[in-house]
């Protein structure tokens, strides 16, 4: 069973009918790799996650829990995956 939103995208131009994606593409294309400007009154917080934990419920009640945490190996940041349950 597949969802109607789970379709293959063959070319970028086919995304232009989708509002959120087309707006994002239009906004980001003009800036290349530079920062996108924002109004001076916009504030915010920078979140730096130390780990991610995902939980997936199962009908059998043997729920699947995975924890991803960053570790440095040979100078590269890689994600260590640990199964917490079952």
Automatic annotation (TrEMBL):
UniProt entry keywords in alphabetical sequence: Flavoprotein, FMN, Oxidoreductase
Enzyme class, UniProt record, top EC level: oxidoreductase
Transmembrane segments: none
A GO term, aspect molecular function: FMN binding
Presence of the UniProt keyword Oxidoreductase in the record: yes
Pathway in which this enzyme or protein is active: Cofactor metabolism; pyridoxal 5'-phosphate salvage; pyridoxal 5'-phosphate from pyridoxine 5'-phosphate: step 1/1; Cofactor metabolism; pyridoxal 5'-phosphate salvage; pyridoxal 5'-phosphate from pyridoxamine 5'-phosphate: step 1/1
Residues in coiled coil: none
Cofactors: FMN
All copies of domain Pyridoxine 5'-phosphate oxidase dimerisation C-terminal, residue ranges: 42-86
Alphabetized SUPFAM superfamilies for the sequence: FMN-binding split barrel
Example GO biological process: pyridoxine biosynthetic process
Family annotation (Pfam families): PNP_phzG_C
The EC number(s) this enzyme carries: 1.4.3.5
Flavoprotein listed as a keyword: yes
Highest rank taxon of the organism: Eukaryota
Protein name (Swiss-Prot/TrEMBL): pyridoxal 5'-phosphate synthase
Species name: Quillaja saponaria (Soap bark tree)
């Amino acid at each position: 069973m597949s969802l109607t939103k789970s379709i293959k995208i063959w070319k970028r131009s086919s995304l232009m009918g989708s509002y959120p994606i087309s707006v994002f593409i239009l906004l980001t294309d003009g800036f290349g790799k530079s920062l996108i400007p924002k109004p001076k009154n916009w504030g915010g917080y920078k979140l730096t996650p130390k780990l991610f934990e995902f939980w997936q419920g199962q009908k059998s009640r043997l729920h699947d829990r995975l924890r991803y945490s960053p570790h440095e190996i040979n100078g590269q940041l890689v994600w260590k995956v640990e199964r917490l349950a079952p």
